Amino acid sequence: MTNILDNIYEGQIAPLYLFYGEEMFLIDEAIRAITDNIEPGGCNEWNRDIFSGESVSPAEVAAAASLSSFFGRRLVIVRNIPWLQANEKIKDDDPLLETAENIDKASKDYDLAPLAAYVADPNPDCCLIIIIKGSPDKRKSLFKAINKAGYAVEFNTPKGGERNIWLNKRFTAAGKSLRRDVIDYIGMVAGDNLSFLAMEADKLIYYCYDKSQITLADAQAVISQNSTTVVFALTDAVAEKNSVLALQMLRQLLQQEPRSEQKLLALLSTQFRNMLSVSDMRRHGYANNDISSKLALHPYVVEKCAAAGHSFAIAQLVKVLDILLAVDIAGKSGGGEWQDLIEVALLRICAFSGQHG
Fold this sequence. Notes:
Elements (H helix, E strand, L loop, with lengths): L1 H8 L6 E6 L2 H15 L9 E5 L5 H9 L7 E6 L20 H4 L9 H8 L5 E8 L7 H9 L1 E4 L5 H14 L3 E2 L1 H11 L3 H14 L5 E2 L1 H7 L4 H13 L3 H14 L4 H23 L4 H8 L3 H11 L4 H19 L5 H15 L5
Parallel strand pairs: 1-4, 1-5, 2-3, 3-4, 6-7
Helix pairs in contact: 3-5, 5-6, 11-12, 11-13, 12-17, 13-15, 13-16, 14-15, 16-17
């Protein structure tokens, strides 16, 4: 997928594409890149046809793509076609039924011959993009023909390192550079939703319009905060034995999100449990990358836990979890108000953090 997309963004547009997969945001981005290349400077509606696959026939698509143009290259986009969906009545594990005729039975209501003929010899003056949301049946003859004559590209949501590479390319295209810890922070805060991630990245690019290097401070100032990042800041204050700041942050958070004490307690417990696991693994010689992989934690989370863990001995982190468990029990059994119980717990933790040995 990467090489094909790189070619698209470099302006090398093929006459035939089949885009499919779960990540419609990436599919739409690829279509925009093709459209911008074919229609530089704006829209050319005379040379563009957009169809819904549910209301257009394969013959009509072939006819539209075959048209000649005197105004530049044509663009034909067909969304959500049903012609390549799997036939649920055919069992994949029965080799006797996996004939070309049976595999194509799902398309018996459509006359695919005109489109198959077009695909065998596509119009070089047109770019035909066929889109499927989800996965096609790759055994179908039409899929094989498209993949032979053009490009069938699967778009899945990138995770982990792939997501960071995608995000870094977005900043590079805007003339911005940033360190890996900044990329990790953005990915951790914004999550895996590419639409939201792109929006947050664009906000940061506009915020840093007059500078080429984006810093962690820039990202922290712009990227929308969530409960996890607030808990990071809260545990940092506790690790620094800054009880005043810790209580101030706790009260501010509860004021912004009333009746969230139990949710906050759960996040605090998770954070200190991660700190205990990270500290123990570092004590046994594991590097942060190995810890991230073994614990399935985001690299930024591991770095934050490792940094905050320096203020606590292993036995103290165990004690912290005991304190937070006692708060949970007391709160659920009517042993006090949730906020009061959490505040006392934070003060107790601040009192012994940093006292190693």
